[in-house]
Amino acid sequence: MRRLLLLTLMLMLFGAVAYADPTEWTFLNWNGGDWTNGYPYYIKPTTGPNGAIYAVMCDDYAHGGMPGDQWDANTTVLGSRNLSLARFNDITGPNALWPLRLYNEAGWILLQTQVEPFGEWKDMTYAVWHIFDSQAPLIGDAQSWLTAAQQQAQIGFPGSDFNKVYILTPVNQHDPDPNSMQEFLYLGPDTSGGKSNNTPGATTPEPGTFLLFGTGVLALLRKKIFS
Questions:
Q1: Residue 194 in contact with residue 161, Cβ under 8 Å?
Q2: For residues 57 and 186, is the Cβ–Cβ distance under 8 A?
Q3: Which of 60, 61, 97, 192 could be joined to 136 by an S-S link, Cβ 3.0–4.6 Å?
Q4: Per residue in 97-107, pLDDT tens?
Q5: Per-residue DSSP letter, 189
Q6: Which helix (H) or strand (E) element contains residue 20?
């Protein structure tokens, strides 16, 4: 019993460390070479397979970043509901969960890129920018997307799998320098075991695997102790 408990605690500790460690990234280019074109931008891990290119959506209208820039970032799974490492976790609203609602609205819009045509993605990006920054313009169909996301929030985002939505935040998450690297969203593996079908994306890490495994073992151990 003691060995099982020790193993569980070790796995949970390793999972927490693996989840929290920042990763260095390299910014490759904007969509069509112009940041105003919106999703997708392209980035890759600075170290790792050369073909590991990620298609990401910028959610951060106030910050910059240029091709060739390298930076360290933390990864958050939106479905975890833990925004402690996210850039916009300090936005005030009518309740304590307001930042989570905003990220869920942005995540819902990103999830729609799996079924919406490429021609809509630019306007969808502008809607996401406006969610976090009211100064971002609403071009084309952006207002419609913003309204749709807000309506989804009111009914609880039925059918939306936020375990597929990852937030990539610079380690200096609240850096006021407009020339510092922006925050990104991307679609990756469902941490519950499914896979996304994000065509332009790349194979992505599952940072919560060990933590989820350790939590599951602990639950089984608790059941055994108290049964």
A1: yes
A2: yes
A3: 61
A4: 999 999 999 99
A5: -
A6: helix 2-20
